[in-house]
Amino acid sequence: MAGSVRILALLLLPLIAAAPAPATGVRCRIAVEGGPVMGGWAGGCRAGLADGLGAGRVRAELRTGVFAGRARAGQADYGIVVMDKDGWMMVATTPEPERPHLDQAADTFEHAFQNSLAGATAAAEAHRRAGNAASARYYRQLRVRLINGQPE
Asked: Has this prediction a pTM greater than 0.90?
């Protein structure tokens, strides 16, 4: 019995080695508002493009920064860009449905920041799983910067 288990494991080994890498976004690309596509997305990935929660380098309004949030088909969709020099920029390409008794602008900001926090967390986790402690720490610290930078 033990010999048959070992043989089965040896037969499966080539299949496991040939399986595609998990979609952690190591080679995924991301762009924001028509800017150039950049690499380095850590998070959800589909066909080499950022798709889902995560974070990565972007160029926006002639400046560079890190987008944290939700991407769809390689485009920043909903979250926050923390600029390298100073400040931040909200990205909200998917409009929030209007809800009675809520301030639409405040609701959009709230969801953008929620997505940015979740994206930074997803990026930190992706880097932790990949064994990149420095990048995992960077994205955990980015999450703290986002929390501290929210408008009141």
From this structure: no
